[in-house]
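Q: What structure does this chain adopt?
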Amino acid sequence: QVQLVESGGGLVQPGGSLRLSCAASGFAFDVYAMFWYRQGPGEERRLIATISDSDSGTFTFYSDSVKGRFTVSKDDAKNTMHLQMGSLKPEDTAVYYCATLIGGTTYWGQGTQVTVSS
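A:
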């Protein structure tokens, strides 16, 4: 079955960096688009990054809130997606989720907490 497991969250000071990982199994990782979402305290879950491969290359998307500070990447050989986060701000504090969409069903990981605080 499809499994997504996030890791790498933690407490970091403003301006710091953190790298999240999402280990995937149970599906053709190199075929399907992958997504990073986050849900801050009292907020709805929002899409922040997307990565997908096609014949014309790799496509990435970033929300305005993270563009220029976060970088999404994937390692098809290891079935792993990463989110490199830099210049972190307190408003980046959230639970971060990876997800994929297969056959009309969205599959989610359990989430990893990122707290940006001094």
